[in-house]
């Protein structure tokens, strides 16, 4: 287990993949959308 293991965080960083252990970037929510949710 380590850099070559797809199931570990370190392995995903080395391979450049994402998953449950290493989520990717979340889409940004605009300020306008936040105001509508609060109403």
Automatic annotation (TrEMBL):
Record region (Disordered): 1-39
Compositional bias per record (Basic and acidic residues), positions renumbered to this chain: 29-39
Family matches, as InterPro entries: Ribosomal_bTHX, Ribosomal_bTHX/bTHXc/bTHXm
Chain segments annotated as transmembrane: none
GO cellular component terms, semicolon-separated: ribonucleoprotein complex; ribosome
Basic residues bias locations: 1-12, 19-28
Keyword Ribosomal protein included in the entry's annotation: yes
Keywords linked to the UniProt accession: Ribonucleoprotein, Ribosomal protein
A Pfam family of this chain: Thx
Family: Belongs to the bacterial ribosomal protein bTHX family.
Protein name (Swiss-Prot/TrEMBL): 30S ribosomal protein THX
Organism: Sphingobacterium haloxyli
